[in-house]
Structure to design on (226 residues):
């Protein structure tokens, strides 16, 4: 459903020559997103939550209300006499996101911290700052270690091994994304296999990744491609 919504929005934006779509995600949504990703086992990248600005299908997605709590928005539209549209599926707790919103967050507020939404929101902001720094370091390392040749990406193993372990994961993630075009289905288990390939397996060994992509260990290079 989420994919279909964004497909409709981006298609409509392009048809009307608009380059931005404003969505109404708010502070509550950010707190719920953090919890949802924590439960699913996201890494630092996922703990950033939603960005104030992102891109989808060549169109900018902006979230101008991300700094506001849901109640603040509801109070404002009530003052203005505006009736909000309600998606009743948002109340169905068979969906994990709704269960977090209506049950888990309420439980945490009542039994642990009445300001839990603020705490989670602030934590996601800290993660954004932290990951921004890590990403800048990883990008610099990527430029030193990686070269693209045709449809393949080659990573210099000697340079890669000198990096901090977390930066290595980011360089490999960037290389996979460059080959595939996205990170769908690339999981932590795949990285651990590549790590084993680098440090333990002989030259000529291969790791299979999603979408028919392979990582081949050469003497000095890792080659990622189809």
């Amino acid at each position: 459903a989420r994919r279909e919504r964004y497909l409709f929005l981006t298609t409509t934006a392009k048809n009307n020559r608009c380059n931005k779509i404003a969505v109404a995600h708010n502070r509550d949504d950010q707190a719920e997103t953090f919890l949802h990703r924590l439960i699913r086992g996201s890494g630092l990248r996922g703990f950033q939550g939603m960005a104030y600005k992102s891109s989808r299908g060549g169109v900018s997605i902006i979230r101008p209300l991300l700094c506001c709590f849901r109640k603040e928005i509801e109070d404002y539209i009530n003052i203005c006499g505006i009736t909000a549209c309600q998606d009743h599926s948002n109340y169905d707790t068979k969906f994990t996101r709704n269960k977090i919103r209506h049950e888990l967050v309420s439980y945490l507020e009542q039994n642990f911290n009445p300001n839990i939404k603020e705490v989670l929101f602030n934590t996601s902001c800290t993660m954004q700052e932290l990951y921004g720094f890590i990403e800048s370091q990883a990008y610099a390392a990527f430029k030193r270690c990686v070269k693209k040749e045709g449809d393949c990406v080659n990573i210099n193993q000697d340079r890669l091994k000198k990096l901090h372990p977390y930066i290595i994961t980011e360089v490999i993630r960037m290389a996979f994304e460059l080959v595939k075009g996205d990170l769908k289905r690339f999981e932590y288990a795949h990285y651990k296999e590549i790590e084993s390939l680098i440090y333990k397996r002989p030259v000529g060994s291969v790791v299979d990744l999603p979408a028919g992509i392979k990582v081949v260990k050469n003497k000095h290079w890792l080659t990622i491609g189809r």
Observations:
- The chain has two domains: 2-128, 150-225.
- Strands lie at 20-22, 53-56, 59-62, 146-149, 152-156, 206-208, 214-217, 221-225.
